[in-house]
Amino acid sequence: QSDLESYNIISEIVRNAEITNDTIGISVYDKQSKDANIICAKAADELLTIGNITASFVIGNVGDVISISGRSIGDINVQIILEKMGGGGHSILAGAQIEGKTIEEVKNELTEKINEYFDDLYNSMINNREIKGKFNLVNEMSYETYRETVDKLIEEKEYLIKEYENGRNVNIYD
């Protein structure tokens, strides 16, 4: 059970969250506190209760380190993202502690790592010809947008390949 002060802090963190990649909430608890880890974890959990958020990251200042709490409903593997920052955990619950950087630097790096995660996911889908219809990438699937985009790209490439095989002049490398 939280006290009212903690609840208000968590509410403020949730209120200040920014959305990236359509459904990922990122927020910051910028007050230095020995309880920052707990507050960030609770705020990350709370962000997941918002309908369109499928993953959340809350960054906090513990004092000597900047901590990140990551949570997911399962569509996004927060462990993979935070491992890229020296952290770890589980696919739906992970954390990291970063030394020698400011909150803003950590937030920027986190955004880069999230984008890398989706780039890696996208590239693995494009390189996997068995993607058509169902994706069998364990705990790696995320947005409907990615699925639709990959399906459209595969359909377009298959169409161009058929056109080429039928003797038509097409550029299949665009």
Write the layout of secondary structure elements.
Elements: H1 4-15, E1 18-20, E2 24-29, H2 36-47, E3 55-61, E4 66-72, H3 78-83, E5 88-90, E6 93-98, H4 103-127, H5 144-165
Parallel strand pairs: 2-3
Antiparallel strand pairs: 1-2, 3-4, 4-6, 5-6
Question: Any descriptors?
Answer:
18% strand, 174 residues, 5 helices, alpha+beta, single chain
Q: Which word captures the global form?
A: elongated
Compute the number of strand runs.
6
Q: Approximately what portion of the residues adopt beta-strand conformation?
A: 15-25%
Portion in helices: 40-55%
Mean pLDDT metric: 84
- How is the biggest beta sheet arranged? 6 strands, mixed
Provide a count of the helices: 5
Order of helices and strands: HEEHEEHEEHH
Low-confidence stretches: 132-140
SS class: alpha+beta
Q: Span from first to last CA? A: 56 Å
Major sheet strand order: 1-2-3-4-6-5
From the alpha-carbon coordinates, what is the Rg to the nearest angstrom? 20 Å
Q: Can you tell me about this structure?
A:
The chain is of the alpha+beta class and 174 residues long. The protein contains 5 helices and 6 strands, in the order H-E-E-H-E-E-H-E-E-H-H. It has helices at residues 4-15, 36-47, 78-83, 103-127, 144-165, and strands spanning 18-20, 24-29, 55-61, 66-72, 88-90, 93-98. The chain has a 6-stranded mixed β-sheet, sandwiched between helices. The longest helix has 25 residues, at 103-127. Mean pLDDT is 84; it is low at 132-140.
